[in-house]
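I hope you will forgive my troubling you with a question about protein structure. The matter concerns a single protein, recorded as an amino acid sequence and a row of C-alpha cells. Please examine both parts with care and let me know of anything in them that strikes you as inconsistent. Thank you for your consideration; the sequence and its C-alpha cells are set out here:
***
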Amino acid sequence: MALRNILIFDPKGGISERLRESLDEVAKCLHIESAADAQKVLRSTPYQVGLVVFDSDSESAFREVELLVNSSSMTEWIAIVPPESLSSLSFQALLLTSFYDYHTLPLDVRRLGVTIGHAHGKASLRRSVNENQTTASSRFGICGESPVMQSFFQRLERVIDADLTVLISGETGTGKELVAQAIHKRSKRSQGPFVAVNCAAIPENLIQAELFGYEKGAFSGAGQRKIGSIEAADEGVLFLDEIGDFPMSLQANLLRALQERAIIRVGSVKSIPVDFRIIAASHIDLLEAVKAGRFREDLYYRLNVLHLILPALRERAGDILLLAETILKELASIHKNCRATGFAPDALQALNNYHWPGNVRELKNRIHRAVILSERRLISARDLGFDAEVQASEELGATLENARASLDRKIVENCLRANANNVSKAARQLGISRVTMYRMLNKHSIATAP
C-alpha cells in the first residue's frame, strides 16, 4: 500500500517527532515549523492531509493557522490541541469552521491514525469530484452528469452541426443562453458573431430599430445610420432570448426576415441579404401562446425546426452539488478575499432539499452572496439565505420574480457597501458592466450616496 503524505505544522517539533515514529509504516510525514513555509510547500506539492499542533492560544497564532488552512482547500486538516484551549469560544469556532477533526493531548496515536485515514479518504473524494467536474463541463462548457442532462447533451450534439433554426425551451434561469453560446462556439459559424437580443428588455417602440437598424434621418433623433442586430449577425448566430415576449404587432416583420433571409432598415426600401442562423429561447410554452392568440402560429413553426428542452434544476438529480462546487470555485477565483472553500453539511442538505424556482441563476446568486458575505471556510445554509425567514417566505408562496429581485437587491447593496459605494468597483466585483450596474440600481431603487 502506498504511503500517505502528511504535512505536520508543529512550531516546536515535539509532537511531529513522535508522530513520525508512530506512523512510519503507513505515512510519510513532513515537519514544518512555520505557516509561511507550510504555504510554500503546499503551493508546489499537494498534501491531502495536514496536522496542526497548537502550542499557543494567542490570537495571532489562531489567525496564522486560519490563513494557512483556508488557503489550502484541497487539504483536510486535523488539529492537535491542549485540553484547556477548548474553553475559548473563538478557538471552538476555529475548530468548527476550519478543521476536519481535532484531537486533544495527550495524544492517542491509534485513534489519530483512524482519523487520518478518514480524512485522506474524504480528500481523495474531493479531488476526484474536482477532476470529474472538469471532464463533465469541458464538452459544452455546461456542468451536468445526471441522466436527464446526458440525454440533453446527446440531443445538443446532433443539433450543433445542422445549421437550422433552434428553439430552446426551459424555465427562467436554466441557462438557455449558455446553450445557445455552446451551439455557436462548436458550429461552423463559430468564427462569425454571436448577437444576443433580449426581447423582453427592449421597449416595443424601439425593437424594430434594434433588430433591423435604421438610416440617418429615418426618425427624430436618428443622427446617423445604425446597423441592426440581425444585420450584425451576418455569417454568425442571432440569439433571440424570451421570444415569447416579442410584440405581436412586429412578428410579421420578423417572420419575413426569417423567410427571406433579408432585412430592410427603417427609413429605407433597399433589401439587404443576411446569412445568419437563428436560435430562439422562451420560458413560456409558445404553443399555448399560439392557442391564446399571443403568438403567430406561422412564426412558431418557423422557429420550432429543432427543439431543445432544457431541464429544470430540480429535475437534475445529482447535479446540484456538482454545480454548487463549480460555481464556488469560479467565484473564489474572481473574489481574491474569498475565504470559503466548500459547503457545511447543513448547506449541502439545504441545497439538495430546496425546490429551486429560479434554477441555476438562483443557485449562482445565492452562492455569490455567500462568497461576498461569509467569513468562514465552509459556507453554511444561513450564508446561502436558507434561514427561517427566507424559508417561511418561500413556503407562503412568494413569487419567483419577487424572490429573485430581493436576492439581487441584497447582493448589489452588500457589494456597494463593501466597496464604499464605488459603483465601478462594485460592478467589477460582480462581473457586470457599469451600465448594467446602474440599471440594477435604478430597478431596485438603491441609493449610492454614503
